[in-house]
């Protein structure tokens, strides 16, 4: 991931990875068995937990990479591959669905906060951002918070969006987001390969 990535580009990348539109059916299914008066409270709680987890990876990720002795280039290439697979999965979702649809009771942390919002790909992305340019932690923090806020607004409005847009429109939008994520992942992969082949002396 290039250190020249703008705050806006980073925010867009994180927003696409969090995939709020794709999470709407999952969240609605999980909240189905929660008392109506507690649904919004539960959703807000899970979103805050996800934000805290992502900030932990943003600020502590570079130390983890240092301990594991991973180079920025290798992490960038690996991140590009992972995000490519996530994007492809968004474009061509698996046939089986509703893995958590029959959950009983009130969800806590899993699967709404993790991996619903703060999934492995989002954690890896914030680690990549922090490692790409540690001096821009404030920029990455702003990008993460804005992406999270946009995700939270969409998920808090999930009931209305699902009724208004319908499953077909939501699916189409999610696949478009998947296309954008695939393009970003390819660019990340190529940046990592170029940086590896032509390291800055």
UniProtKB/TrEMBL annotation:
Its main location: membrane. It is a multi-pass membrane protein. Keywords: Cell membrane, Membrane, Transmembrane, Transmembrane helix. It comes from the Bacteria. It is found in: Cell membrane. Pfam families: MarC (PF01914). The chain crosses the membrane at residues 12-31, 43-63, 75-92, 108-130, 142-164, 176-197. GO terms for cellular component: plasma membrane. Belongs to the UPF0056 (MarC) family. This is UPF0056 membrane protein. It comes from Dokdonella fugitiva.
């Amino acid at each position: 991931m290039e250190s020249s990535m703008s705050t806006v580009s980073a925010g867009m990348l994180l927003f696409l990875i969090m995939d709020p539109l794709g999470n709407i059916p999952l969240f609605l299914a999980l909240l189905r068995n929660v008392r109506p008066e507690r649904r919004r409270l539960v959703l807000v709680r899970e979103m805050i937990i996800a934000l805290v987890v992502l900030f932990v990876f943003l600020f502590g990720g570079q130390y983890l990479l240092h301990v594991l002795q991973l180079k920025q280039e290798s992490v960038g290439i690996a991140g590009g591959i992972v995000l490519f697979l996530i994007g492809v999965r968004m474009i061509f979702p698996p046939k089986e669905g509703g893995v958590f649809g029959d959950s009983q009771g009130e969800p806590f942390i899993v699967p709404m906060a993790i991996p619903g919002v703060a999934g492995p790909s989002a954690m890896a992305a914030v680690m990549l951002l922090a490692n790409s340019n540690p001096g821009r932690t404030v920029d990455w923090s702003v990008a993460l918070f804005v992406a999270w806020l946009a995700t939270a607004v969409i998920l808090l409005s999930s009931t209305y969006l699902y009724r208004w847009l319908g499953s077909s429109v939501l699916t189409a939008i999610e696949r478009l987001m998947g296309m954008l994520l695939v393009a970003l992942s390819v660019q990340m992969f190529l940046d990592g390969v170029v940086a590896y082949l032509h390291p800055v002396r």
